Structures are given as C-alpha cells and as structure tokens.
C-alpha cells in the first residue's frame, strides 16, 4: 500500500531540492517532465512548492535525479561532523602510510591535499 504524499508544509523544501538537483544536472524541466510522464505544469507546481508528487512519482523522480526519496522529502541526513572528520582523517592517514611505504619515503615527507566541492558540482559531475 502506498503511503500518503508528504505533508504540504514540506512541499516548498521538496520543491527546492527537486529544482536544485535538476538544475545541477543541467536537465531541462520539459525533458524531466517527459521522462516521468507528467506535464511540465505538474513539475513546475512541485518545484514551486505548490504541490507534492505522489509517492510512486517521487520514487521515480528520486531515481532519475540520483538520490533517494528520503533525500527529496527530508534533505541530507543530520551531520555528525566529528564522526565524519575522524573517518576522513583515518582514511587520509592510511593513504599517507601506503604512499610512504610504496615510495620508500618517511611518512613525514608525504603530504596529501583534499578539496571539498559543493554538492551541486558533485551531482553535475555524476550526471
């Protein structure tokens, strides 16, 4: 049995996420609407927050945009900055050790640089 569409209070936030993901992928609204089998007007209503897609359409929309339906409904999960920072630090430390070992250099001679990109760049790069 399908669940009810998201509450109308969520519609503006859902619409912004749909619009931002579509734009980040340089996907024309007309094309996305056609791929989903809906009217351009329906897509515009979702993106403007006037209405929400039904659950089946939300799933198809999420799949097309490369995210989960939960992401469209709620946005990214709550961050755990310290936990994430510790995981990244562990990964970088392991990479430094492997590079030092492979090159025969002392670990203090190996430096890694990491650049974080905004989500829009990452989504566009995947598309």
TrEMBL record:
Q: InterPro entries, alphabetically?
A: Cro/C1-type_HTH, Lambda_DNA-bd_dom_sf
Please name one Pfam family that this protein belongs to: HTH_3
- GO molecular-function terms, A-Z: DNA binding
What domain of life? Bacteria
Which Gene3D superfamilies is this protein grouped with? lambda repressor-like DNA-binding domains
Q: Which CDD domains match?
A: HTH_XRE
Q: Which intervals hold domain HTH cro/C1-type? A: 18-72
Name of the molecule in the record = Transcriptional regulator, contains XRE-family HTH domain
Name the source organism: Allosphingosinicella indica
